[in-house]
Amino acid sequence: MKFKVPLLAAAVSAAAMMALPGVAKAQMRPLNDPVVAHPDPESLFTSDDPELHRNKQTALHIMRELLQCGQWDRAGEWLTDRYIQHNPLAASGLEAVQHYFLNVAKVQPTPTCDKLTNPIVAVAAEGDIVTVLIKRELPIPGGAEGETYTTTWFDAWRFVDGKADQHWDPATLPTVPPAGQR
After folding, report:
1. What are residue 158's DSSP bridge partners?
2. pLDDT tens-digit profile of 74-131?
3. Global model pTM greater than 0.70
4. CB count, 10 Å around CB of 100?
């Protein structure tokens, strides 16, 4: 019984805060420490274990040549033909991935791509899975022009015979406005 009053007070207080626009906006401020990229990201893609090393090196090529430099015509060097996507915005299959980046997104390749510049935070490998954590900088919702915060994105791959065969990331479908607001 003695916990009900503090819980009720907390609920009323939270409801009141959400009803006040200034308070709600203040709640949209990031509370986290900034995410910091590793100073030498390529050094994270190595391992003393030969299989983990091979998989990490393939992940490095995917990050550098494909995602950073847009050399999607080379994707077959690092992705299997069946390349299974778990990103709801992407179709599975090597051809589908190449079609998306080359023909839909119209990514223009960078001719030379000798150094990884993506802000990599960490790389973890276990068994046939490699996960890469990447720093993301996003605008603060409702914040001033140019005001940003940092968070973390990830890409994870399952490898078969040294090629990425399956991919995961935290992507979601875009939010659809309610029926009356379209």
Report:
1. 129, 166
2. 999 999 999 999 988 889 999 999 998 999 889 999 988 889 999 999 999 999 999 9
3. yes
4. 16
Contact 159, 61 (CB under 8 A): no
Count of CB atoms situated within 10 Å of the CB of 143 = 14
Hey, what CATH class is 32-170 in? alpha beta
Sign of the CA dihedral with 66 first, then 71, 73, and 74 last = negative
Task: Report the candidate in 166, 169, 171 with the shortest Cα–Cα distance to residue 81.
Answer: 166
**How far apart are the C-alpha atoms of 57 and 46, rounded to whole Å?**
7
CB-count exposure of residue 54 (10 Å: 0-12, 13-18, 19+): middle
Query: What does the alpha-carbon distance between residue 26 and residue 173 come to, in Å, rounded to a whole number?
Result: 27
Query: Smallest Cα–Cα separation from 41: which of 155, 156, 134?
Result: 134
